[in-house]
Amino acid sequence: MSEDDFFKKASVVKLDTLSDVNDIGKPWRYEEDGMTVTRTSPWSPPGCHPVGCGLKLYVDAEGRLERVEGDENNPVTQGRLCPRCIALKDYIYNPARLLHPMKRDPKDRGNADAWETITWDEAFDIIKAEYDRITAQYGRESIVVFAGTGREGGTFFPFGSMCFGTPNFCYTQSGYACYTPRLAAIAYIGGTTYPEWDYAGALPGRWDDPRYDLTEVLLIWGKAPLESSPDGFFGHAVIDAMRRGTRLIVIDPRVTWLSSRADIFLQLRAGTDTALGMAMLDIIISEDLYDHDFVSYWCYGFDELAERCSTMPPEKAATICDVPVEDIYAAARMYAAGNPAAIQWGLSADQKTNGMQHAQVIVSLMAITGNLDAPGGQLLPNSSAGHNEVGFGFDKGVGDDLLAKMVGLDQYPAYCMVILNAQADLMLKALETGEPYPIKMGFYAGNNLMSCTSMEPERWHDAIVKSLEFCIGFDTFMNPSIEASCDIFLPLKTVAERDGTVFTHYAPCTVTAGFMHEAITVGDCKTDYELCYELGRHLRPELWDKEFNFRSAKEFMEALRLGKREEGRYFDKVAENVVCQIPIEYYKYEKGLMREDGTPGFATPTGRIELWSTAFHGFGEDPLPYYEEPQFGPADPELMEEYPLILTTGARTTAFFHSEHRQVPRLRALNPDPITEINPVTAQKYGIADGQWVRLSSPFGECVQKARVSEIVDEKTVHAQHAWWFPEEEGSEPNLYGNFRSNINNLLPNFHFGKLGFGAPNKCFVCKIEPIEESYDTDMTEVWDKFGKLV
Amino acid sequence: MMTQYGLLIDYEYCTNCGSCQVTCQEEHDYSASETGIKVLVDGPWKTREGHWNFNNWPVVTDLCDLCAARTAKGKEPMCVHHCLANIITYGPVEDLAIKLSTKTKQFLVVPQYDPIAARGPFVSKNKGAHKAAHIEVQGTGKANYAVHRHDTKVDEISVEDVDATEN
Description:
- The complex is a heterodimer of chains A (791) and B (167).
- With 791 residues, chain A is α/β, with parallel strands linked by helices.
- Chain A has 27 helices and 28 strands.
- Chain B is α+β, with helices and mostly antiparallel strands and 167 residues long.
- Chain B has helices at 19-28, 68-71, 78-82, 93-100, 115-118, 159-166, and strands spanning 5-9, 37-46, 52-60, 88-92, 107-109, 143-144, 156-157.
């Protein structure tokens, strides 16, 4: 296939509600009523995983962004937008946004008033001096690059490798309990990456395309796709499918809105999913509801799986999961009857200690029902869609010797090698103890770990502040992590100020490729790729100017994302399409499209989906799924006596992307305070009124949040929101924007991951709850006064 | 008569994403505490059939002008454009009423922007047909307590007494 065919302008399917006066068919840039309209397909910032919705940016003659509208030309979003892009202007021109580099004396860390504006040249010179000093004394491995989630500059970027040359790129959530455990499971079982539900996103006719079969049954498991849309999948595609007749099964400890629309809803005890999945496999196998042909030709280890799952009969699972046994039967039969059927699997698979086994049963369900790579089933990526090409883990610029020193690599290769990341918990240990070697310099790449991604955040705070001699923050706004620990702040461009690419679903089994177009200039900021290129050349000229040899920052981006080196000309050409649908094939494993060698089968040792996993076996893990009780839960009655409630955390909201957006008043108004959901019966028992503030505590710490009394959770469970800080409050230590007051991560531990290094009990923990007299209600007038008047 | 326009809302699929409220605020430059549309939530609560009732209701407020500036150009209101679940349809009420009859769990709404101002300033409609007549009258020379009483205990008020108390 030629490249022009690959990046071809997407077809448009007009929504019925859209007026006949619309912008379908408009070019990537046009004039309207004295304004220049730029069509773009954003990634970040603000924070979002690559979804690549369509945006139209209206810029006036003075170069100011006047309005933001959803672009009707996007085949998936069709003009629709979530609140965060709708409020993009309020983010870009927010009075709290930082637009110039700053420095601060390391002695003044934590003092919000001690920053001093400097030039980029001065910032680069300071960084160079510290880089040379620290690497001469401790080696490049003493640098840690903290990656956040979603944003291009975080997980996806070669800051660690190409710019700083350290093996220690690190996402600091204990057990990398977000997405990567699922990725690892499918990599080690199926030799491929994340199988996404096929919602016809890549097909020109969308839902009505002749190649597509509408998903009859969609099983939504531990995922809230509507709210988690910025996690990479356009969530409301589920609604589009439901309106065409797709029926739902929902498995979740919370009564999500989707569960109220489901044929079957299994409100299981948090953390027991693997038992449920094994029981569903047992039903489908013992009632002979599986796809015999797919199992005999394309699966390995079916008999062993059948035998193992027979140890978890539905009646046993019903007791463990606290759900009616007849509902387990009904769900298994309905999923198996769906032709096609698909599973949307969420973060619950990652956020438990034995999450790998949860992922394993889900992949097994997809496989034995013959739904892998079937239209309307689970779309698989082809062999060229690995992660390393697009940013997940780079070794270039590090060197083999140094790569071998990655923190945790010797103990947890299954973790470190799948994403080329230092093991999070062992990084904490290295920061605290200097073992296996000292960590002395840090860089925050799209990350606010003290508010969002780190458990026991005060412990991380203390370790970072104590261990790092020099630290750099690169972001759009100040945040608690940078305020507490950085000596240099560098300002980052937003989506409206930059060009670039966006591949949906983190690039594996991508359905659309989008392109960002720079529409405005604000302050003196840089994109991730501009900083990486410029700072990389400043720090390591021998490598960048002799070996890498990119002719411009844009060519670096072009090479990184499109595999071309044409000084940006190739990018400019394809970017005029704004959004393209990626050509896809179904049943790739039959056609030799799943393996580098071009022969049929999967890229696994046996060439099949390994229901009995050779790789797991090789890593010393059980090759078959098994159920383990949550470590903190009813299995420990003594603990439950003091902490009688099951705590699940981190459900997404549409107002915010994790710890971002708290300073955008129109978004904050959707969710002004940190919310804990508690059942009316439980609330009555503890004397908690709706809207009252409560103290939540666990063996690891405590925080306060505001109670929402609702049947959304059952009597044994509470759910607490994550990533709260308060940008309207005092930023200096010790308050640090109220960072540790409502931070649910105070209650959650490090070092409780599974055998392969993955997983953490963020969604299946314990706590106790008590009402408090104080109120910490957000004063929205204050928020509006501080952040509502745009600059 | 002028065509009446409204919004047909398929609340079966309203997911309470907040896009309608935020886009309304952006379009009209309303503050974070003002909006022309917002979502009210009913649920979740369990029905006697064991089903979870959980419905979100986008309701228009007195600040909804159906995006008059946009609809004048033939475009749809912003909440229609951005609604993630695509559940809001704008159009003439007669057309929407036909759509309303084809599916359950919908409602049709015709908002009124700033309803007090929309009434206009107060102007009396009654012209006062009766013209006061010029007829000479004579005083009774006395005042009565509570003339609606019919018992015999009603005393007359001495006009002199009244004058005396006032002095």
